[in-house]
């Protein structure tokens, strides 16, 4: 089964259902043409793998030499000097650097920054009666928030965002990778010369003494989550609120919170639908399936969250989803991600509570993300 087609992007849950009918918990797939992998669609099997770094390594180096240099998924899977792509002592060092640079981020201050960014964006289209919530709201908001977090000037941040978009879409991915690296080296040079009270400066001052190359790759990882995935989290949750009568009415009416909507979205359509990639150090026999050594094992976060063996009807207050990962490679900043998304959603719903989606929705193809190309809405204009 192929995860890179437009058909999969249009209705992945139908494909996950077909997978469950034909297979058990482990499904042979292709991430791009000629790139085989195993997709994990069982929740308990996913947890078993994510909590077994001794047998399932995050280091892809023995795998990546087997794929062409122009492979469209390589930039998102290749080795980098970061915690998410290493094991053992290297993992511990890199994990300490990223955690140490973001653990003391002032959430109250960031909450205020999100509001300061959101309101001018909304004012820019509130009298038009229509807007695209991707290009006119969620993307510029998360772009500016992420730049504020790492102390990145807009021109450098724009290079980074455009490169990340190319990488996730798998179109000109190698060019996107080059754009990202160039942007981050510029940011590192700036912060070495003019340090501030931002994540980049804290990372460069951390006791792990990251080199410029190592710091660049840590920032690439942070930007990937902070822009691309955060946009999808905001937009997909807004789509849920605006299209589900039971949920939209409850959120807007106050019986359910935006946080409840975010959690349901993170169960059903997480912005990173298939990822958390590991590579078996040796052939592994799991759930009556042999997993080849060094071949990617990809956790289907979306399918595992919806595994019938663990799925419950009522998700309110249930945060056992895998959207932020599990085990030693779990996301180090879920509270920050929740806060930014919740404030962004609350701000626009407060100002434009009567928004309604219009037109057909197109999901961007790609094996990893769950991302809308656009989310056009209309709303009444009040003089």
Describe the structure.
There is one protein chain. The chain is an alpha+beta fold and 383 residues long. The chain has helices at 6-10, 12-22, 43-50, 61-64, 74-77, 88-102, 107-123, 134-150, 154-169, 173-193, 199-205, 212-243, 245-253, 258-268, 301-305, 334-351; strands spanning 26-32, 35-40, 56-57, 130-132, 274-280, 284-286, 289-291, 297-300, 356-357, 376-378. The strands form 3 sheets. Strands 1-2-8-5-3 form a 5-stranded mixed beta sheet. The protein has a 3-stranded antiparallel beta sheet with strand order 4-10-9. It has a two-stranded antiparallel ribbon with strand order 6-7. A hairpin with a 2-residue loop joins strand 1 (26-32) and strand 2 (35-40). Helix 8 runs antiparallel to helix 12 and helix 12 (212-243) crosses helix 16.
């Amino acid at each position: 089964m192929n995860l890179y087609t437009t058909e999969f992007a249009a209705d992945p849950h139908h494909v996950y259902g077909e997978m469950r009918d034909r297979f058990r918990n482990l499904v042979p797939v292709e991430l791009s043409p000629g790139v085989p992998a195993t997709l994990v669609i069982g929740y308990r099997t996913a947890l078993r793998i994510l909590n077994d770094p001794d047998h399932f390594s995050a280091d892809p180096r023995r795998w990546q030499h087997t794929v062409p240099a122009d492979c469209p998924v390589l930039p998102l899977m290749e080795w980098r000097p970061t915690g998410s792509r290493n094991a053992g002592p290297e993992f511990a060092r890199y994990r300490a650097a990223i955690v140490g640079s973001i653990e003391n981020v002032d959430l109250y201050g960031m909450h205020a920054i999100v509001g300061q960014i959101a309101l001018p964006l909304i004012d820019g289209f509130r009298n038009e009666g229509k807007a695209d919530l991707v290009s006119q709201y969620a993307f510029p908001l998360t772009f500016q928030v992420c730049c504020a977090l790492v102390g990145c000037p807009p021109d450098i941040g724009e290079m980074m965002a455009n490169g990340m978009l190319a990488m996730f879409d798998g179109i000109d991915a190698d060019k996107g990778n080059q754009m990202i690296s160039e942007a981050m080296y510029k940011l590192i040079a700036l912060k070495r010369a003019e340090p501030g009270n931002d994540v980049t400066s804290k990372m460069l001052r951390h006791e792990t003494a990251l080199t410029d190359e190592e710091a660049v790759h840590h920032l690439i990882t942070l930007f990937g989550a902070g822009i691309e995935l955060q946009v999808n989290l905001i937009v997909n949750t807004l789509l849920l609120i605006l299209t589900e009568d039971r949920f939209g009415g409850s959120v807007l009416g106050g019986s359910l919170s935006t946080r409840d909507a975010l959690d349901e979205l993170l169960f059903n359509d997480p912005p990173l639908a298939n990822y958390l990639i590991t590579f078996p150090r040796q052939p592994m026999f799991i759930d009556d399936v042999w997993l080849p050594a060094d071949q990617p094992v990809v956790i289907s976060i979306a399918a595992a969250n919806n595994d019938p063996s663990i799925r419950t009807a009522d998700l309110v207050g249930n945060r056992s989803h895998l959207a932020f990962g599990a085990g030693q490679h779990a996301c180090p900043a879920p509270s920050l991600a929740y806060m930014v998304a919740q404030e962004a959603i609350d701000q626009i719903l407060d100002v434009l509570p009567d928004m309604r989606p219009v037109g057909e929705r197109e999901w961007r193809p790609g094996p990893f993300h769950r991302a809308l190309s656009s989310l056009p809405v209309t709303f009444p204009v009040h003089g």
